[in-house]
Amino acid sequence: MSRELPKRFPDNLHVVDPLAHIWRSGQPEAEDVPVLVRLGFRSVLNLRRLYSGRSIFDGTDIREYRIKLFIPSEAEMVEALRIILTAEKPLLIHCRHGSDRTGAVAVGYRIVFNRWTLEDALNEFYNPDYGYHPWLYWSLPRKLRRYDWGRIAAAVHAPGTPPGVS
User: Residue 37 belongs to what domain range?
Assistant: First the structure.
């Protein structure tokens, strides 16, 4: 077996947390699935409202979780973070471009699991490498500032029913 890295990766692919094996990207295409399998991905968190992508993972050991987001509510953020907490790793979080909805969940991950400040997490969110679309998601950073992050963290770590699988 060749040790070379594949030439194709999902668009906007970045490591969120190398120790926890959390990644983010844009929507994987069917051509990306062999790469994800080869890299050992076990779970995918799909944040898209209008596209499941589930069929591209048929016949693999990758389990897809899905939350249909636009601007996430606090409850949806809790659900996403609980999936990240409990899903088998490595885990890939994605939306269409891997920038806005994925970036919002990455902000939540940074605050709840990495214990970053909101400002540090938002500074990463605005990093041009991730491609934030302010003309479409102009209200997203303002909404993230209004969340009660203490309540979200408590809910994520509270015992209860595991998050749903799409």
Answer: 14-150
72-87: per-residue pLDDT in tens? 999 999 999 999 999 9
Side-chain half-sphere exposure of 55, counting CA atoms within 13 A: 1
Number of domains in the chain: 1
- Closest by alpha carbon to 137, among 15, 43, 47, 9? 47
Residues 86 and 18 sit within 8 Å (Cβ to Cβ): no
Report how far apart, in Å, the C-alpha atoms of 107 and of each of 3, 20, 59, 124 are.
33, 15, 32, 8
Q: Per this entry, what is the length of the chain?
A: 166
Query: Is 56 among the domain residues?
Result: yes
Answer whether residue 164 shows pLDDT above 70.
no
Question: Cα 36 from chain centroid?
Answer: 15
**Do residues 146 and 77 touch, judged by C-beta distance below 8 A?**
no
